[in-house]
Write a structure and sequence with these properties.
Length: 139
């Protein structure tokens, strides 16, 4: 519901993929400091969230395979807010520790083209790619 709410309000539009690690994942969703058109702050990108309260953990048995979308959080399992990540490959060491909320159904070839970050700087990206427009389609 959180992702739907932020997307439907346009909150994810123009938000950067601020942390991208080759062979692992691409992280985005910092609506506070990650908007490339308003509020972009490279020094703080990845530290913000939304105006909503943090979410309680909703762990499942869904494995972190290629294309899975998971909620990003701090060390506190109940700290997910607006940030999320898309897996480039499997990361089963994350299983049961992060909330899975979706899976890429089409267009993984575009996810694979997201600009990678600096491995020595935890995947931080200079001049990152961004989500131009985010829409939610329900079946």
């Amino acid at each position: 519901e959180r992702i739907k709410k932020i997307a439907s309000s346009g909150g994810y539009n123009n938000v950067a993929f601020h942390r991208v690690i080759e062979g692992f994942m691409a992280q985005t969703g910092d609506v506070e400091f990650g908007n490339m058109e308003s509020g972009w702050n490279p020094a703080r990108a990845g530290t913000g969230g939304s105006s909503e309260q943090n979410l309680p953990a909703e762990f499942s048995k869904v494995p972190f395979d290629r294309g899975v979308l998971g909620m990003a959080r701090s060390q506190d399992p109940n700290s997910a807010n607006s940030q999320f990540f898309i897996m480039f490959s499997e990361g089963h060491f994350l299983n049961g520790q992060y909330t899975v909320f979706g899976h890429v159904l089409e267009g993984m070839e575009f996810v694979d083209k997201i600009k990678r970050g600096d491995q020595s700087n935890n995947g931080s990206v200079d001049e990152p790619d961004s989500m131009i427009s985010v829409e939610i389609f329900e079946e």
